[in-house]
Amino acid sequence: MTENTPDFSALHAELEADIAALSFIAKVKLEALRQCQRQLLALRETRLPAPKFALCRLLFECRWTRSDRMKALDTIAHQERYLANLRCDEPLPF
Questions:
Q1: Which pTM value belongs to this model?
Q2: pLDDT single digits (tens) 16-28
Q3: Mean confidence (pLDDT) of the chain
Q4: What is the DSSP letter of 90?
Q5: Distances (CA, A) of 3 to 86, 87, 88
Q6: More confident residue, 87 or 41
Q7: Please, which residues have CB within 8 angstroms of residue 29's CB and are 6 or more apart in sequence?
Q8: Residue 2: helix, strand or coil by DSSP?
Q9: Minimal CA–CA distance to 29: which of 21, 3, 92, 14?
Q10: How far apart are CA 88 and CA 10, in angstroms?
Q11: Cα distances (Å, whole numbers) of residue 53 to 12, 43, 47, 56, 58
């Protein structure tokens, strides 16, 4: 009689790939956020009567990008905790 044991190596590899992909996404979002912030500074330094739509749209893009980056970082933290629990490196929270 064989015992059913879960294959944690496949799950481990999948989690590591997810963490790597999400880390890359977070880096891209950070660069996009910096670009938005540079554009906002340039727009404010020119002190031209800029259309309200352009400023509002740029502010919206900054907020959206910051939110996406924070979601990616939260997901990375969750995946890393899950991976640590899988490896039994970290005690379970209960």
A1: 0.75
A2: 999 999 999 999 9
A3: 84
A4: S
A5: 20, 21, 21
A6: 41
A7: 65, 68, 69, 72
A8: coil
A9: 21
A10: 16
A11: 47, 13, 15, 5, 8
pLDDT in tens, 59-75: 999 999 999 999 999 99
In the structure encoding, which two tokens stand for residue 62, read together? 């900054």
What is the predicted pLDDT for the residue at 1? 47
Unique residue bearing structure tokens 């891209």: 28
Backbone angle region of 3, left / alpha / beta, with phi > 0 → left and psi within -120 to 50 → alpha: beta
Measured in whole angstroms, how far is the alpha carbon of residue 60 from the centre of its chain? 18
Q: Are 79 and 86 in contact (CB under 8 A)?
A: no
| Cβ–Cβ < 8 Å for 16, 76 | no
